[in-house]
Amino acid sequence: MKNSQYWIEHLKLERHVEGGYYRQVLKSEDRHDNRALYTSIYFLLEHGNPSHLHQLTADEVWYYHAGHSLTIHTISKSGEYEAIKLGTDVENGEVLQALVPKGTIFGSSVENEGEYALVSCMVAPGFEFDDFKLFTQDELMKQFPQHEEIIKKYALKEEI
Question: pLDDT (tens digit, 9 = 90+) per residue, 38-79?
């Protein structure tokens, strides 16, 4: 049976600053406003190694591949929280793909102990680290105190 280490080794994934493991696999050669039209990565998360709350200036589409389901935790610009379950159990509300609109604060996690999830994420226009903002708990608590439980669980305690 394939486990997280199998995918990390075979897909040549590296640690991501937000949490988990990744490798960019596609980048459009076409450009608009000096940016690639899109980029795409493999992204793997394990239980206990979440993607910490962050924000992008472009839309991101998530595609489920393997492992256990993954929860994408989102806080919209207006402060609404939503949990999107990415996985194959569509009869119980999971989806195979999901959109995180630009400007949304989000992170993701694998809730079941000992499990992992392998997904792909496509960003359009293409991802640039300059457009990536990783949040601390203090920053988010000032804006969204009503989401204290999610913030304390998925935001960094301090800047890295």
Answer: 999 999 999 999 999 999 999 999 999 999 999 999 999 999
Q: DSSP class of residue 128?
A: -
**Where do we find the tokens 């459009």?**
28
- CA–centroid distance for 89 within its chain: 19
Q: What is the mean pLDDT of residues 122-127?
A: 96
Structure confidence at residue 143 (pLDDT): 95
Alpha-carbon distance of 89 to 57, in angstroms, equals 30
Tell me the two tokens of residue 73.
């935790």
The 3-state DSSP composition of the chain as helix, strand, coil percent (nearest 5) reads: 20, 45, 35
Calpha distance 25→160 (Å, rounded): 26
Record the pTM: 0.95
Tokens of residue 49, six digits: 């190694």
- Tell me the one-letter amino acid at 97: Q
Specify whether the CB–CB gap between 76 and 106 falls below 8 A: no
The whole-angstrom separation of Cα 65 and Cα 62 is: 10
